[in-house]
Amino acid sequence: MSRRLLTTSHAVMALLSFAPMSGYQLARAADRSISRFWPISKPQVYSELQRLEALGLVEGNDVVQDKLPDKRVFRLTPAGERALDDWLVADQLEPSRFRIPLLVKTLVGHRVGAEAMRELLGAYRRAVEEERRRLEELDEVLAGTKEASYARATVLFGLKVTAAIADWTEEVERMLPQEPVRIDPRRARAVNALALLGSLPRRGSSKVRR
Amino acid sequence: MSRRLLTTSHAVMALLSFAPMSGYQLARAADRSISRFWPISKPQVYSELQRLEALGLVEGNDVVQDKLPDKRVFRLTPAGERALDDWLVADQLEPSRFRIPLLVKTLVGHRVGAEAMRELLGAYRRAVEEERRRLEELDEVLAGTKEASYARATVLFGLKVTAAIADWTEEVERMLPQEPVRIDPRRARAVNALALLGSLPRRGSSKVRR
DNA sequence: GGAAGCATGTAAGATGTTACATGATTAC
DNA sequence: GTAATCATGTAACATCTTACATGCTTCC
Fold it and tell me: What's the confidence (pLDDT) of residue B4?
């Protein structure tokens, strides 16, 4: 357990700021709300709650239920509310991270050729467009509710990004070499491509920015 | 060490497919190429190499250097080449994952108000646009080299997505309520917003699709 | 009345990160 | 000639996921 609280901890507090909840309810709420841009699994929720309780940022009350299993319902403490708001306006933001297996495949796409890559791209586009349709439905629901404008902003993000990705798949399909050929391109000028990719300094790789 | 190989393992093999490398060189190559869409830290590279070697997918040779520390240089074995290509065309793709702290903040943006959110959005836009400029430079370099078209496709992805995100920040800034007001909106209709967000079934949350 | 699913939660283990170690080499 | 950086790598730890456990309810 580290000392500094990261995004996951604050995300749990953010959800609790909407309503007191048990670990189970929190995990479900997380799955239905922030999981698209900040996934948190159920066991993570429970361990975050422990940590936050130890720090006095949340407090749990036992609730006895007769039909369902008993539970502990957590709420933000005043210190927790403060910690959440401080984090919200902190000027230093944790960086975004993207994990996109298709792009790893794309980088070595020459190994399987343009046709196989078009298959992969097409499948990805279909998945992304389905997600996009779900987000559109959601957007319509939220558009009707003034109080939901911040929630709606997160949905808009998804709409923009899924559109951009679908667009990208089409552009790349057009761009790929017209080579249904069986020439095995392995080892060709591949090293070159990798070297070129790394030919610009990465962000943060040097102390002095330009 | 799990049995099934995941994206990280295959990413290491993908990089080795360009050229044999030591763990250190691999980690640096990863940082300069795939880290934008599949970050791998140095110790991860080393543990993947161990795992892959145990499976006979890569093999390492000791190389003695006199000026620099000795090293082990790894190369793909024929079995490794096969495993990589099988993975490339496998129809079932691991899902993409996004981790974007700003969206967590956005969801509870009502706590700090529109002005504070505009600050955050502006800062994010500036960072994204800087990244975008780097990618543009990179794209120009790659555009000149026919062999780099797959590498270039990954850069194009970044270009599309950064443009979409920059766009989103502007749209949201316009959309936010004109409320430089001090009315503390806490607890208002917040629960409602969360409930609405979760009002559609999440992907994969039920077995039957539509 | 059996199967599936829900509401609660935990244990075990894999994945991933931060920080350290060390000797050479370059930079000023 | 000291400070920073590079090339190599490892140890310790934090984060996150997969799988399990349990008793009720609902479904057909």
Answer: 75
d(CA A29, CA A138): 15
Report how far residue A158's alpha carbon sits from residue A156's, in angstroms, rounded to the nearest whole number. 5
List the Cα angle B174/B176/B182 in 5-degree steps.
Answer: 130
CB contacts, 8 Å: B107 with chain A = 14, 33-34, 150-151, 154
Q: What token pair was written down for A110?
A: 């020459």
Q: How far is A130 from chain B (nearest CA, A)?
A: 10
State how far the alpha carbon of A62 is from the alpha carbons of A26, A54, A73, A75, in Å: 15, 16, 6, 12
| Strand ranges inside chain A, DSSP E | 21-22, 58-63, 71-76, 97-99
Widest distance between CA atoms in chain A: 69
CA A192, chain centre distance (Å)? 32
Maximum distance among all alpha carbons in chain B? 69
Q: Please report residues of B whose CB lies closer than 8 A to that of A34.
A: 103-104, 107
Through-space distance between the first and last CA atoms of chain A, rounded to whole angstroms: 37
Give the separation between CA B139 and CA B158, rounded to whole angstroms: 10
Q: Which residue is nearest to nucleotide D6 (CA to C1')?
A: B68
Beta bridge partners of A104: none
Average pLDDT over residues B44-73: 88
User: Whole-prediction pTM value?
Assistant: 0.89
CA distance B81 to B52: 12
What is the rounded CA–CA span in Å between residue A106 and residue B26?
18
- Cβ contact, residue pair B107, A34, below 8 Å: yes
Checking if the pLDDT of A206 tops 70, the result is: no
Measured to protein CB atoms, the chain D nucleotides within 7 Å are 5, 7-19, 22-25
Least confident of A126-140, B6-20, B82-96, B167-181: B167-181
SS3 B63: strand
- Give the span between the Cα atoms of B158 and B15, in whole angstroms: 19
What type of residue is B200? L
Residue A179 is predicted with a pLDDT of: 62
* A7-36 per-position pLDDT tens digit: 999 999 999 999 999 999 999 999 999 999
Q: How far in angstroms lies nucleotide D25's C1' from the CA of residue A68?
A: 10
- Does the pLDDT of residue A50 top 80, yes or no? yes
Give, in Å, how far the C1' of C24 lies from the CA of A203: 27
Tell me the two tokens of residue B169: 């920040």
